[in-house]
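Escalated from tier 1: magnesium ion holo job.
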Amino acid sequence: MAKKCIYLFDFDNTLYDPANGLMNELKRRMGLFLAKQLNWTPAEVEERVEKLRVLHGPIITGFMREYPEHKIDVELFSQFVHDFSLPDYLAVDRRLQALLAGLPGDVYILSNGFEEYLDQALALLGIKDLVKGIYGIRFVQFSGKPDPNAYERVIDDIGVDPASVIYFDDNIRDLKPAKKLGMTTVWVSNGQKWQPPKWVDYRLADIYQLSQLDLSC
Ligand SMILES: [Mg+2]
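Tier 2 regenerated the structure:
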């Protein structure tokens, strides 16, 4: 009998169209929070936040590593960053519901977002009940993707052989550690035009193309 696959998805800009502007709003609010806390000018915010993202992945991970002297109040950070109307950006997605419901294996989320945000966002898309587990930035103790530790913790927690896991992400860089661990990698390119590097097994134009992949394990 064929082994069942585990389907592991990034969330932001993977399970919704980046054109909805949600990720930009989240990043804008993270920058505002740091600016307020540290008296950074808008130009300093732009430059430093981008650097944190490039070097460390999640802005909060980068901030904790680069500025340990500024003890960040994680609860305040989450409150501030998520203090906007999420339903303005996300609504029930029937096509996505049908796609996920039709997958022959369990669905999990591995995201650098906060669990409380992911919970609400998945509910708004109408897919929360189709997801067996949500792994956010709290679960990985703020060492988010592409830190290999994040992927290893999740694999451990699910209790699965990485060879049975198919991992989907819009961020090429975040697919690399997944491939290294032995997962099958799917790049949800969503308008990005780069040539996929060797650690990308499959490329989808958007998540709805998932139905055209033959992904048995
Ligand atoms: Mg993403």
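The pocket of magnesium ion is lined by residues 10, 12-14, 169-171 (CB under 6 Å).
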